[in-house]
Amino acid sequence: MDFPVTLVVSVAALVMILLLAGAARRLLGVRFGAIRTFLAGLLAFALSAPLLSPILDSFPRTPAGGEPVDPGIGAVWVLLLVAMCVVLIPMVLLVLAEALVPPGSIPGPLEVVRSMRGRISRARRYSQITRIAIRHGLGPYLRGRGARVEDRPGRRRLAASLRQALDDGGVTFVKLGQVLSTRRDLLPAEFVEELGLLQDRVQPAPWEQIEPVLTAELGGPPESVFAEFDRTPLAAASIAQVHAARLRTGESVVVKVRRPGIDRVVARDLDIVRRLAATLETRTRWGRSLGVRELAEGFAVALCEELDFRVEAANMAAVIASRASGAPPAVSVAAGGSGGVAVTYPGPVPSLCGERVLVMERLTGRPLAAADDGARGLERARALLDCLLRQVLVEGVFHADPHPGNLMLLDDGTLALLDFGSVGRLDAAVRSALQRFLLAMNRQDPVAVTDALLEVMPRPEDVDEPALERALGQFMARHLVPGSASVQMFTDLFRIVSGHGLSVPPEVAAVFRALATLEGTLQRLAPGFDLVGEARAFAGRHLSERLDAGAVKETVVQEVATLLPMLRRLPRRIERIASAAEHGRLGVNVRLLADDRDRRFLTGLLHQVLLTVLGATAGLMAAILLGLDGGPRVTPAISLFQLIGYNLLVISAILVLRVLIVVFRRPRDARP
C-alpha cells in the first residue's frame, strides 16, 4: 500500500475514532477527559470488527461468477442497527472506566512527570534528613521503635539530640522546633527548654543576591528609593534579613527582605514534614496522642503565610487600625502605684511593601532575653497579657504567635510586639461569646460557662449538657485556684471539649494556641507568673468597663436603634393579622421548593427515574419481540420483529448507561 492510500486510511480511521468518542460522550450527557474519551473511541474502533462481523456475515453474499444479490431495504435498517451497536461499545467502556477507574484515581502524564521529579527531589532530602537523624541518634524514634525514656537526664539527652537534628535540618525544621518550644501543653519541660535554645541566626545572604530582590520589589535600586540604605544587615534569619534605611521624608525604617529561593526550599520541606507527620501518626502511639498531622498542617499554613510579606503588612495595618478604633493607643498597667508599661507595634509603609520586601517603622531596643527580672518583669508580663486579651476580646484582631522571639524591650522601657505574619481574626459574635465565657469563668458559673462554650463551638445534636456542665464545674474547681498550672489547664480544657464531641473552629483554636504560646513568653518575662489569676483580674476589669454608665448607655442606644424599625412596623402588622382573623381570611402561605438547589435535585431525581423506567420498558419490549417467531422477513436471517427488538435493546442499553454513569460518577468535592 503506497503512502497516499495509507495516509487517507489513517485519517479516515482517526475521524471514525473521534466520531465514536464524541457520539458516546454526547449520548451519556457527561463530560469526560479528552484522553479517556479518545481511548474509549480507539478501543471501540478496534473491537467493532470482531464483534459485529457475525451480523455482517448474515447478509447474502454474491456467488463467484454469479449475479449480484440485492439485500433489500432491510439491509439499511440492519446497517443502522450495526452503527448503533458500534456507538454503544465506547459508551459501555466509558461507564466501566467510570466505575472501576474514577477520574483522579490515576494521575495523568504531566502529573506523572511532575510526581517523578518531586519524588527524586524528596528522595534526596529524605536521605539527607535520615542521615541527620541517624547521626544524632534519632533513627529508631522515626521508625516508632525508640526506647521510652523515663529518667530526666535521659530526656535531656534526647531533647538535645532533637534540637541538634532540627538545627542541622535547615530553615523549616528550625521553625518547627521554635514552634514546638512554645507548646508546653504537648511536650515535657526538658524538650521545651532545649528547643527554646534554637537560634534562627544564620549568615546573611550576599548583597549580590539581595539587591535583585529589592530592585524587583521596589521598582528600582534601593539607593533611588531611600535617602539612605545600609547594605550591611542588622540581623539575618533563615527566611529573611533586615537592613536599616531612612526614607526621603526623614523617618528611620527597617527593610525586611526574603532570601532568594527560600520559597522552593520551604515548599519541599513542608511536603516532607506533612508526610513524616502522617507516618508518625500512623505508626507511633505518641504521634497519634499528639495529633502530629494536624499540628504539621497548622504549622505549614502559618509558615506559608510568613513567607508572603504582603500578608504581614496587611496584618500589621489591621492590628493598628483595630487598636485605634477599639482600644487605647497603648496598653498600660501600673505597678506599685506608679509607672507603667506600654505595648506598641511598628507600623508598615504600605507603598513600599511587597511579597518579598517589607518596610516598617524602626524601633530601637534589645531582645526580650535581655529584659530584667523582678517587678519590671512582672509589670511587663501583665501589660502583655492585657494587650493580647484586649486584642482577642475587644478588638477582634490578635497576634497569633506571641513567642519570645517576637518581642522586643525598647529603650524607653516599653514592649514592642513584632512579626505579624500570623494573625487571627474574630467576628463580633465570637468575641461576645468569648467575653461571656471569660466572665462566667471568673464567676465560676458552670451553667453560664457551658452556654458560652456552646455558642463558640458548633453544637452537636446529641451533646449531653448536664455532663458537660459537671465536667466544666470540676475543671474550674481544679484550676481556678491560686498557684494552678496554666499549661495543664489548657490540656484539660481541650480534653473536655473533645470528649463531648465538640469541634473547635479554626479561629477559636488560634486563640487557644496564642494563649498557650503566650504562657511560655510570660514565664520568660516573670517566672512563676499566674496566668489564670491575671486573666481573671482582667475579666473583672473588663466587666467593670462594660458596666460603666457610658458603656451601658451606648449599648442601650445601639440596641434600641436596631429594634426601632421593627417596633414601628409591629402595630400595623398586628392590626392586619387581627383583621384577617376576624373576617376569616387568615392563612399561611408556604412555598415549596423555594430553594433552587432543591428544585435541581428533584428535577435530576425525576430525570433519573424516568430514564430508568423508559430503559426497563424498552428492554422488556425488546425481550418480548425477540422471543416471537415468524413475522415479515427483513433479511433471510432476521425478521422485522427481531430487528425492532434489537433496536429497542440498544435503546434500552443507552438509557441504562446514562443512569449508571450518574450513579458511578462521584461528586467533585468527594474525589481524592
Write the layout of secondary structure elements.
Layout: H1 3-28, H2 34-57, H3 74-100, H4 109-135, H5 139-142, H6 152-169, H7 171-180, H8 189-195, H9 207-218, H10 222-225, E1 228-229, E2 235-236, E3 240-246, E4 252-258, H11 262-283, H12 285-290, H13 292-307, H14 309-326, E5 343-344, E6 357-361, E7 365-367, H15 375-395, E8 397-399, E9 407-410, E10 415-417, E11 423-425, H16 428-443, H17 446-456, H18 465-479, H19 486-499, H20 506-525, H21 531-546, H22 549-582, H23 596-626, H24 640-664
Parallel strand pairs: 5-10
Antiparallel strand pairs: 1-3, 2-3, 3-4, 4-6, 7-9, 8-11, 9-10
Pfam families: ABC1
GO molecular function, one term: kinase activity
Transmembrane segments: 6-25, 37-56, 76-97, 609-628, 640-664
Polypeptide structure, described:
It is a single chain. The longest helix has 34 residues, at 549-582. The strands form 3 sheets. Strands 1, 2, 3, 4 and 6 form a 5-stranded antiparallel beta sheet that branches. This protein is α+β, with helices and mostly antiparallel strands and 672 residues long. It has 24 helices and 11 strands. The protein is extended, with a radius of gyration of 36 Å. The chain has helices at residues 3-28, 34-57, 74-100, 109-135, 139-142, 152-169, 171-180, 189-195, 207-218, 222-225, 262-283, 285-290, 292-307, 309-326, 375-395, 428-443, 446-456, 465-479, 486-499, 506-525, 531-546, 549-582, 596-626, 640-664; strands at 228-229, 235-236, 240-246, 252-258, 343-344, 357-361, 365-367, 397-399, 407-410, 415-417, 423-425. Helix 1 packs across helix 3 and helix 15 (375-395) packs antiparallel against helix 20. It comes from Nonomuraea rhodomycinica. The chain crosses the membrane at residues 6-25, 37-56, 76-97, 609-628, 640-664. One of its GO terms (molecular function) is kinase activity. It holds the Pfam family ABC1.
